[in-house]
Design brief:
single chain; alpha/beta; six-stranded mixed beta sheet; 11 helices
Length: about 325
Amino acid sequence: MSGTAGVAIRAVGLERSFDDVQAVRGIDLAVAEGEIYGFLGPNGAGKSTVVRMLCTLLAPTAGTAEVAGYDVARNADEVRLRIGVALQDAALDDKQSGREVLLLQAQLYGLTKSEAQIRLEEVSHILEMDAIDRMIDTYSGGMKRRLDLAAALMHNPDVLFLDEPTTGLDPTSRNAVWEEVRRLNQDLNMTIFLTTQYLEEADQLADRVGIINSGLLAAEGTPDDLKRSVGQDVVVVTVAGDPAAAVAAVSGLDVVDHVDANSRTDRGRPIGELVVSVTDGPKSVSPVAVALDAANVEVRDLTLRAPTLDDVFFELTGGRIGNESSEPEVVR
């Protein structure tokens, strides 16, 4: 056994290439035992590739990684015994019941029948009460994600990898997963490596956050530290119609550092949203409002707020996390 005491996940110079595409270009990570680590990045940045290397599903092209004290390349079997993994696409057999899936998982990890029954009772609360004996083809998408999480926990892993565990879930199911993640971390001191496309999720759950961009770790720190690093208040403006006129109206103001805009529809009507980074929040609201009024822009809402993780993400990657290119990650 190697590695450093107190470190659950360590990567040094971790790289992965696919033919002539370098998806991960030298990642250094150190995740402490008992930590929830949030991992963010645009589509195609290398998030899932990093997770698959740490879970032994992909071999690194260069560099090293250890999980639970074992090298992911040389000691892959030892790593697998100590981790739980819930990836984006749950590999579940629709013709099995939830109970059968969980007991099969226990069998694969060598648990005895009595041990499996104990663990089944301990993780079954993650599912709805009547779901465990139903066929999986009757499950909703949220129930399948929760079953996949329960299966990943059957062998009581030291480290849990969750790859976008709440994507596509309704708010109730998402909150249930959040509560379970908190419980696992607080009650069992379980180390959790969480990739997510929801910045609120990282802000709420993660002790530290790493942001990957173009295969490199662009920033790392606590959510509060990262937000302070941006150092700017923002004025959020909702306008009717195309936001182009609003962008033109405020972009030249001395108090404005930069403007990010996007469009959406509300009850079939076009709506524009501007996120205006300003040098002095309280003193900037009036000039922004006056400039919009002078340009005859119809303002629906205007608010001042402190920086968020979304602002950090934009500062580092040039895009909003829900608004980036749909180019898929290079994962094979």
